[in-house]
Amino acid sequence: MKCDKKGLLLYAVTDRSWLNGETLYSQVEKALQGGATFIQLREKNLDQDHFMEEALELKKLCAAYHVPFVINDNVEIAAKMDADGVHVGQSDMEAGDVRAKLGPDKIIGVSAQTVEQAILAEQRGADYLGVGAVFHTGSKADAEDVSHETLTAICNAVKIPVIAIGGITRDNVTELSGSGICGIAVISAIFAQKDIVSATKDLKEQTLRMLENK
Prior knowledge:
This is Thiamine-phosphate synthase. Pfam families: TMP-TENI. One of its GO terms (molecular function) is thiamine-phosphate diphosphorylase activity. One of its GO terms (cellular component) is cytoplasm. Pathway: Cofactor biosynthesis; thiamine diphosphate biosynthesis; thiamine phosphate from 4-amino-2-methyl-5-diphosphomethylpyrimidine and 4-methyl-5-(2-phosphoethyl)-thiazole: step 1/1. By secondary structure, the chain is of the alpha/beta class. It has a single domain, classed as Aldolase class I (TIM Barrel, Alpha-Beta Barrel). The chain has eight helices and eight strands. The protein has helices at about 25-35, 50-65, 75-80, 95-100, 115-125, 150-155, 190, 195-210; strands at about 10-15, 40, 70, 85-90, 105-110, 130, 160-165, 185. It has an eight-stranded parallel beta barrel with strand order 1-2-3-4-5-6-7-8, surrounded by five helices. Helix 1 packs parallel to helix 2 (about 50-65). It is globular and about 40 Å long. The two termini are about 30 Å apart. The mean pLDDT is about 95.
């Protein structure tokens, strides 16, 4: 499955902090019903066997919706379970090394905070960039804030698609217009909401509106 700009419009990153007795599977299904265009499985504390089991179930679910499914950080599991790809941070692994492990047809996303990091990731074979935190965020205590100027400079410096991440909500997404991004990645703006389906629909509409205001 290839990575195109449309597919990166509304990129949902999972988080089991807000399950409240629900399964991650059902929350992801609601996000897909609401129109999420990309799913990243992000698990920091799950043991290998449960992670694998969950990843395989979610891969099937995403395939049914024709939405790319990638794994956060864990290149070994992504390769083993044949995910559509992986998203790695600056410290996780060079994009070139990931490409060598996963092969030419997998999606590789790389987090970047500076123009230099962005250019390097593109040169090493990244398919898209996740740039942030564009707003202050509670989900990553160590995330550096990235200014609108830097976000725009990164979009201008690379040919691959760029999505913004970090603290994005339906209320501030319009502030990203004109930066050159092709979509947004969110965690709590979808998964912490009481009605995930309508929150996702609403966020998607706001994002499309933001992209129209070039």
